[in-house]
Amino acid sequence: MSGTRSARSARSGAPARRVLVAADKFKGSLTAVEVAERVTAGLRRTVPGLEVESLPVADGGDGTVAAAVAAGFGRREVRVTGPLGDEVTAAFALRGDTAVVEMAEASGLQRLPGGVLAPLTASTYGSGELLAAALDAGARTLVFGVGGSATTDGGAGMLAALGARFLKADGEPVAPGGAGLAELASADLSGLDPRLGEITFVLASDVDNPLTGPKGAPAVYGPQKGASPEDVRRLDAALAHFVKVLEEPAGARATEFAASPGAGAAGGIGYGALLLGARFRPGIEVMLDVLGFAPALERADLVITGEGSLDGQTLHGKAPAGVAAAARAAGKEVVAVCGRLALPPEALGRAGIRRAYALTDLEPDVATCIAQAGPLLERAAERIARDFLD
């Protein structure tokens, strides 16, 4: 009871009566839509009839299309090439002439057959096909969310699907994947889809790494995709060679873009997108604009955000940090839900989050916590209602 009283006494003004739930997924247990449903159920169990608006959010990584669909975009499905060449069904979201394309739909880790990692050979070709499908559907604005990739090919596969040619010395195409770029002898960008020069193209990512080097895509993210230390060295050298060869058709911008923020996103697909004319923006900022967060925020008295793990990475461009920053700027109070909390109260406060409710506080066993995330999240939401809404 003392914790509840202190939470109530800490806040000012009248109790909030309209709540906006703008949380990301709990990876491995709940989608962003399911998080919003569970939070809403818990809130209303404690405060019947409470006005709750749900706006599932994403930062450009996996779950971005689902968030757009939940916000009213139409879901479009298309058959594309998976990261190892097999055909997969991928989706993008379309509303009017704006498309939200998620590279993980075509080239993500979840698309690897049997979940077997392939750091040297996985290709982004299907992501290029997905972009082309969005153009075919009439998109004039492409929001390209990147993250969760199985690939480290610098976007070469994507560029090839959109009309570029990457050839070995014998005139044959290089092998798919980042390792194949070591044999690249010439690059021809003249066949790229001309529609790309006539649209607004936004690269939405939560990372700002360059393409190569100690902070580049292979070094930082390669191990997550199964790359050994030797694989990382091979991939980094191959991508550096890729950039060097691209100086012939693309000029100085080939090297400039390689060092630009976002070039290393999703195994370097950010680099390919920059070559296509994309403008890099933090993923959560882009998605909040696309999803209509500002008017929803204006209607709210209390904002609930969150994700599976609130930790140091959260503060660097993840969805909860973006939601909290926007809400704080609007003078709205923010609390968070999470599976696991690894941030001290002062870090939460600096991020604009008043208090965080972790599922592990209710169920310390992590495996049980993941398996029962839904019911536990409802219990956490009941606590929020008692602390902030009663």
UniProtKB/TrEMBL annotation:
Q: What class of enzyme is it?
A: transferase
**Enzyme Commission number:** 2.7.1.-
Q: Quote the InterPro entries the UniProt record gives.
A: Glyc_kinase_flavodox-like_fold, Glycerate_kinase, Glycerate_kinase_RE-like, Glycerate_kinase_sf
Q: From the Swiss-Prot or TrEMBL record, what is one GO molecular function term?
A: kinase activity
Query: Where does the sequence pass through the membrane?
Result: none
Q: Can the keyword Ribosomal protein be found in this entry's annotation? A: no
Instruction: Give the UniProt family note.
Output: Belongs to the glycerate kinase type-1 family.
Q: What is this protein called?
A: Glycerate kinase
Organism listed in the record = Streptomyces prasinus
